[in-house]
Amino acid sequence: MNKTIWLIAVFGAVLLGLVGLTHWLLYQRLVVATALPAPWRQIAAIAIVLLGLSLPLAFVLQRLVDAPAMRPVAVGAFVWMGLVFLLVLGIAMVGLLGWGHDKVADFRGLVVDPERRLFLARLLGGAAAGGALLAGASALHEALRFPQLRRVEIKLRKLPKGLDGLTIVQVSDLHVGVTIQRQWVEKLVIEINKLRPDIVALTGDLVDGPVAALREHVAPFANVQARLGTFLVTGNHEYYSGADQWIAVWQQLGVRVLRNECVTVQDGDHAFDLAGVDDWTAARFGLAGHGHDVAKALRGRDTSRELVLLAHQPKSIYEAADHGVGLQLSGHTHGGQIWPFGWLVRLVQPYVAGLYLHGATWIYVSRGTGFWGPPMRLSAPSELTQLVLRAA
């Protein structure tokens, strides 16, 4: 079996399991525990089942259907996906309150009558639902507004004085697909060009779907105006969507795709090296010539020059630091996207969002310019990043 198909099948099985578990929990806590009367109980049960089925359907529509009529269905399902997470989080939080109430009652030897227990269940269920809706509305607004411009200055030891002030505009994790489409990309390109960048760095996960469905939506990137060039590295989502086909599209748009390679960026009499590597997971997809290889990318370069590395996942920093990289630009984490996912990201990535010094190597991790799945961001706003390089 093709590795990509196998990975998608595993993802689908895990997704179906999570969908079933979370929606069963919603039914138990919001319908059964609150003793919702007929016919509302039956209506709620049917609604929960249909909403649950909409989630796997959204992923199918996103990848297999290029039909505008299906877009509202997929977008609605992804919004529900975000609300489900917030509902489960709310249920867990109010569940702790209910558990604490019961423990206090037991300690004091009190007997909670059934009517009071039902009232408490309905109160807590309503609080969980209300809190999730408010948080969801805020997260939806945050995700759908245009990304904030974030300006970061970084001093690099080997950067020539003549390159002091050189700017790199970073776009990461845009996830062009069922929610983010051509109009959004056109506006993004306008904002990029307003910054008059020297270099534009696209650090992976730019697309979420096949070339046939999304080629026209990324076409505006051909209009990016970067004085010294536009460069891209693959993220894991490029591999879910046909990496070789997407690489060809980006090349047709005038973007230089760095695949475990290093180029020297010359600006007048001054220069530095810019390298890029395939995504950390690339080898899993069984595509010939693909795989994350920092050593290959940097082999034979002049180590006296400053070196900037584009690597989708922050965990590349360990090899980057060992090879004398001055600055690594990454994405992938979305800054957690929806609180408290940022804490979970820390279990698998060394850095989540922002600028860090790892040994002698700087790493900047973008929170992402778009979003994945639910069009929601909670305590992790999207960003368009302008990095200003300074000679130390």
Summarize it:
Helices cover 45% and strands 17% of the residues. It is of the alpha/beta class and 392 residues long.
Structure, explained:
By secondary structure, this protein is of the alpha/beta class. The chain folds into two domains: 3-143, no CATH class; 148-391, Purple Acid Phosphatase, chain A, domain 2 (4-Layer Sandwich). Helix content is 45%, strand content 17%. The chain has a six-stranded mixed beta sheet with strand order 1-12-2-3-4-5, with helices on one face. It has a six-stranded mixed beta sheet with strand order 6-7-8-9-11-10. The radius of gyration is 24 Å and the shape is elongated.
Overall mean pLDDT = 90
**Could you describe the largest sheet, including whether it forms a barrel?**
6 strands, mixed
Strand order of the largest sheet: 1-12-2-3-4-5
Share of helix, binned: 40-55%
CATH topology of the largest domain: the name is: Purple Acid Phosphatase, chain A, domain 2
- Shape type: elongated
Instruction: Give the domain tally.
Output: 2
Supply the helix-strand structural class. Answer: alpha/beta
| Low-pLDDT windows of residues | none
User: How many alpha or pi helices?
Assistant: 11
Give the C-alpha Rg: 24 Å
What is the CATH class name of the largest domain?
Answer: Alpha Beta
Strand share of the residues?
15-25%
Q: What CATH architecture of the largest domain do you see?
A: 4-Layer Sandwich
